[in-house]
């Protein structure tokens, strides 16, 4: 079975440019999560969706970050304009309908470097 | 205070050793607990859930102490392949919250 698919795997761009990260969750999973991981702060939840609806975006660092989920099989995380401090690994994860102890399945991540 | 706190390590142990990791969480309303494993430059993967009565999966034993808000992971007879970062994870319920809170991880290096 296909897991969570993220693209691109790596992105290097100059500050000020728009960056778009993409995610395809596992088919049938109702929840989709976007995380950011850095050495200093670890894995931080940015936003999550339930049935394509954003539920909690309190982790989104600022207005430069936006996320959408136009349908059950696709989500984007956009940074505009990008800054060097946005450099991190961005993970997308999905999970089936809420049941106790249901694990999240992570994609391979996008390594983002803003120069 | 961080919501989930772990000793970052590194823990350097010889093959065959027993090693234990601890984790504390701040929200007494937390309902579910997990250990995830993350290999270098890879995504986190669920290692095991943590149940109130404690649970074991082969060489791995997880325990939960709700009164002290403390979670532990014990690895017996450690293997080289156990080298990874171990993430303590807490899930909150209630209201609109349905999030996993990750600790920053404990790095384990098993030496030959």
Record keyword descriptors for this entry.
heterodimer; A: 115 residues; mainly beta; 54% strand; B: 112 residues; 6-stranded mixed beta sheet; 0% helix
Structure description:
The complex is a heterodimer of chains A (115) and B (112). Chain A has 115 residues and is mainly beta. Chain A is 0% helix and 54% strand. Chain A has strands at residues 5-7, 10-13, 19-24, 31-38, 42-50, 53-56, 65-71, 74-79, 88-95, 105-106, 110-114. In chain A, the strands form 2 sheets. In chain A, strands 2, 4, 5, 6, 9, 10 and 11 form a 7-stranded mixed β-sheet that branches. A 4-stranded antiparallel β-sheet of chain A has the order 1-3-8-7, with no helix packed on it. Chain A is globular and about 40 Å long. Chain A starts with a strand and ends with a strand. The model of chain A has no long low-confidence stretch (mean pLDDT 93). Chain B is mainly β. Chain B has strands at residues 4-6, 11-14, 19-25, 32-38, 44-50, 55-57, 60-65, 70-75, 84-91, 100-102, 106-111. In chain B, strands 2, 4, 5, 9, 10 and 11 form a 6-stranded mixed β-sheet that branches. Chain B starts with a strand and ends with a strand. The model of chain B has no long low-confidence stretch (mean pLDDT 91). Chains A and B meet through strand 5 of A and strand 5 and strand 10 of B.
